[in-house]
Design brief:
By secondary structure, this protein is of the alpha+beta class. It has helices at 10-22, 37-40, 81-94, 139-142, 159-191, 202-217, 232-247; strands at residues 67-71, 100-105, 108-111, 119-120, 130-135.
Length: 255
């Protein structure tokens, strides 16, 4: 993860890191944490809360920054800053997220104090090149590194995503085919069946088919022998389970 100002409160370090995770190629040009000279002359969450002008003084005596700016350009085909802002607003409105005090983006502001109602922002910066996130001054909330759940934002699959999923499925299918082929060869060896040995009779074929039926259904054969847990059939089942388990882990974000 990227290095951040040591005074930035942990919950906003986590938010920055999650932006980097969901948009690894994003533009950082308009990122910001500690305030510049202009910020220092006014009340701002970007200022050092011990020596600068800030709206709130928290309970500790640590030099901390309670706001970040995140560049608008995420460089992802179906992931925009607007989606991220609306996603976080949804969590704030539902009560699932309590660490933010307000968000400013694209000439709009939403704040906890107003119930997260959208209002027009008339400050000097329209905040079109970045989104501003101000966080709580409550000790437990500012220190929380719980997930912001940005990875849950729904996005459409790109062609590259689809190609990657297809390649993963093809590779899994090849593994399953290889496992089934190996299990089949093992079965033919243990059953003693060979279409080439001399003097083969129809009764032998019938007997072999009964062995196969017993083998597949898991019933003991005529001698009372039960198919072992590590039998070829068990390996076939494991191969099928591999497809089902792996199918649930396919994501559109490849690392």
């Amino acid at each position: 993860m990227a290095q951040h100002n040591k005074m930035l409160i942990p919950c906003l370090v986590q938010l920055f890191d999650e932006f980097d995770f969901i948009a690894p190629s994003r533009d950082h040009a308009s990122d910001g944490d500690i305030g510049n000279t202009a910020h220092q002359a006014e009340v701002s969450d970007h200022n050092d809360d011990e020596v600068g002008k800030v709206p709130i003084h928290d309970a500790d005596h640590q030099h901390e920054i309670h706001a970040i700016d995140v560049d608008n350009n995420l460089r992802e085909s179906d992931l925009t800053m607007e989606k991220v802002v609306q996603f976080l607003l949804g969590r704030c409105r539902s009560g699932a997220e309590k660490r933010l005090r307000y968000i400013i983006y694209n000439r709009r502001i939403w704040s906890a104090s107003s119930g997260w109602v959208q209002k027009t922002y008339t400050g000097a910066s329209p905040h079109t090149e970045h989104a501003h996130f101000s966080a709580s001054y409550t000790t437990a909330l500012e220190a929380s590194t719980a997930s912001w759940h940005l990875e849950d934002i729904p996005v459409a699959m790109t062609q590259a995503d689809k190609d990657w999923v297809k390649a993963q499925n093809t590779a899994l299918l090849a593994q399953v085919k290889a496992a089934i082929a190996a299990a089949t060869d093992d079965f033919l060896k243990v059953s003693g069946w060979s279409e080439g040995y001399p003097g083969r009779q129809i009764g032998w074929h019938a007997n072999d088919m009964q062995v196969v039926r017993n083998y597949v259904t898991g019933h003991p054969d005529a001698k009372g022998q039960q198919i072992a847990d590590d039998s070829p059939l068990a390996r076939i089942v494991k191969a099928a389970d591999l497809i089902l388990s792996q199918a649930g882990t396919v994501h559109t974000n490849q690392e």
